[in-house]
Amino acid sequence: MSVLVDKNSKIVVQGFTGKEGSFHAEQMIAYGTNVIGGVTPGKGGQTHLDKAVYNTVDDAVKKGGANTSIIFVPPRFAGDAIMEAAEAGVKVIVCITEGIPVQDMVKVKAYIEDKDCRLVGPNCPGVITPGEAKLGIMPGFIHKPGRIGIVSRSGTLTYEAVDQVTKAGMGQSTCIGIGGDPIIGTTTKDAVELLMNDPETDGIIMIGEIGGSMEADAAYWIKENGTKPVVGFIAGQTAPKGRTMGHAGAIIGGENDTAEAKMRIMRECGIHVVESPAQIGARMAEALG
Amino acid sequence: MNLHEYQGKEILASHGVKIQRGYIAETAAEALTVFKKLQEETGTDIAVIKAQIHAGGRGKGGGVKLAKNVEEVEKISGEILGMMLKTPQTPGGLTGPGKLVSKVLIAEDSYAPDFDKCQEFYVSIMLDREKKCNVIIYSTEGGMNIEEVAETTPHLVYKEWIDAELGIQGFQLRKIAFNLGLSGAAFKDMTKFIAKLYTAFLKSDSSLIEINPCLVDCNDQIVAVDTKFSLDENALFRHPDYEAMRDKSEEDPTDVEAKDYGLNFVKLDGNVGCMVNGAGLAMATMDIIKLSGGSPANFLDVGGTADAERVENAFKIILKDPNVKAILINIFGGIVRCDRVANGVVDAYKNMGNINVPIIVRLQGTNAELAKEIIDKSGLEVKSAILLQEAADLVKDVVGRS
């Protein structure tokens, strides 16, 4: 069953004909993802990668039946693209774009709040349900269909975890890259909740980093509602205070932002916390027995 | 991106926020000229001479002084300009090397004519990550370190959250002014001041505006006496004029160079350098170094295209640090193929010619095996690994021997 995306998702690519959009749409299609077409304003009616191009997301929904979108639009237009997808009735919106102004996201978050949609990202690698659909920029081949769900704020660190899970003989149900920005749509807790309720997921890997309280919020939720083993890792144990570490959201402000504080809270909530990122896969295998 | 006080005040003034007026000077002679100009415009008797560096607590290090006449303006400006100013916030704190002062702000005395009649408050605006909207934080305890106020007297720190779609409302402006204990003309002016300040925050795409002290002067006017101002770098495309406010001399020179190469770099004080693709994996790699008995010398994200040029630039940046005893390259090749990265590493290594610290290369993902072969056959002093744990063990070996 998986979560967020599967082989029946009808996907529209926003920023379809641009360099990034074209490259990754092609990879997604090659993986077997059901891409119905894309949106590039002014190029409606053309075809690209043998798929339809629409002027608006509304057209893609009404004429092409799209219910899922992935956004490769440049930062200055990406907030607008998210709102367009939400307004058009798209149910799952994944925004890959990095570098959206914070105040744009404040507005977007408020705008989509009462819309019937789920935003993943921005500044994320996307979502993949191995063997069914790749809605993102992750390398498809490292994934294997299976029963471990992965939630992460990072790109390549998620691939690292995926690879360890695959090498340990397990596979993944759905991997959700939630993004590294200060304001994102789906939080760690939201993603953990989706996977906890998914009958095809047996264990969850939760990868966080310094900054914010998302991991602590997820940990407290897991303590109350958890029914499956959760393995956790927090990147940035050695990060200095007050400096942004690559991701705009990765900055230590107060005491509870540190990796130590987050790991302590996670342990107290019954999560199997690993100190070394090299041990994520092995610890999951151990936790499942 | 952090701004100097005078730059922040320029932006505030452009949005109608009343500021302590002043002019910038780079020499003592210039200070004298601008002080005379300021006197004509404002009638101020006293000049406040303020060192312009990107750090708070300037007064504690002798970077903010009063000058009672023209002679003192020239003398004090001359003393502050060119000094290495140490404050609790400059690198290394009060015992560190300090920061070079190359500009002073010659400002009016906003407290005249009666210092005791004035009142100092604290006001700041920033993003509340948890509530996903902007928040105004304010306090009656102005002119002090707000973190300390929040710790010792939390009931004196107030917060007002602003609706993202509707913006700040009249009742919120009144609430702020009432909580600060104001009445009459000062009350009215504070509501206007906060409204303009919030507009300035939004219109300039700030990530932080702090006004401390925020003064009620003797005429019941609200004045921004000092400001700490940061801009959202991602929004600079909307403000090309603010881009010119970047003061590269305030940033670590290596950080600036890395930025020019398009590398995301943060200097740390350890002994093992690292070069990684992706911010999360880069932080995790730093953690691995620590767990292996080393200490990370830097954070460095080479980004998506780890070609020979970028790898070479990254080598250059890392090797500037004499404390670096080893370098760990950790690339997870997804879209970028590991064999290309491996060739990039080999080419960069050969081009550099004089790398005399051990290098550990861990390449995983697309064509990882082929990449390991390229490294192993290159004949270079480079150790290769595929699994992250193998890389960690190699770091342990190297660190243990040195």
Give a quick precis of the structure.
The complex is a heterodimer of chains A (289) and B (402). Chain A has nine helices and 14 strands.
What tags apply to this protein structure?
heterodimer; A: 289 residues; alpha/beta; 7-stranded mixed beta sheet; 33% helix; B: 402 residues; alpha+beta; 13 helices; 37% helix; elongated
Q: Order of SSEs of chain A, N→C?
A: EHEEEHEHEHEEEEHEHEHEHEH
Largest sheet of chain A: 7 strands, mixed
Structural class given helices, strands, pairing of chain B?
A: alpha+beta
What value does the average pLDDT of chain A take? 94
- Which radius of gyration of chain B do the C-alpha atoms yield? 26 Å
Rounded to the nearest angstrom, the distance between the terminal CA atoms of chain A is: 23 Å
Please report the number of helical segments of chain A: 9
Please list the strands of the largest sheet of chain A in the order they lie side by side. Answer: 3-4-2-1-5-6-7
Main beta sheet of chain B = 6 strands, antiparallel
Helix content of chain A: 25-40%
Question: How would you classify the helix and strand content of chain A by structural class?
Answer: alpha/beta
Beta content of chain B comes to: 15-25%
Helix count of chain B equals 13
Q: Give the averaged pLDDT of chain B, no decimals.
A: 92
Parts with pLDDT < 50 across at least 5 consecutive residues of chain A: none
Specify the overall morphology of chain B: elongated
Verbal overview:
The complex is a heterodimer of chains A (289) and B (402). Chain A has 289 residues and is α/β, with parallel strands linked by helices. Chain A is built from 9 helices and 14 strands. Chain A has a 7-stranded mixed β-sheet, sandwiched between helices. In chain A, strands 9-8-11-10-12-13-14 form a 7-stranded mixed β-sheet, with helices on both faces. Chain A is globular. Chain B is an alpha+beta fold. Chain B is built from 13 helices and 18 strands. In chain B, strands 7, 8, 9, 10, 11 and 12 form a 6-stranded antiparallel β-sheet that branches. In chain B, strand 16 (326-333), helix 11 (338-352) and strand 17 form a beta-alpha-beta unit. In chain B, helix 2 (28-42) crosses helix 3 (70-80). Chains A and B meet through helix 4 and helix 5 of A and helix 9 and helix 13 of B.
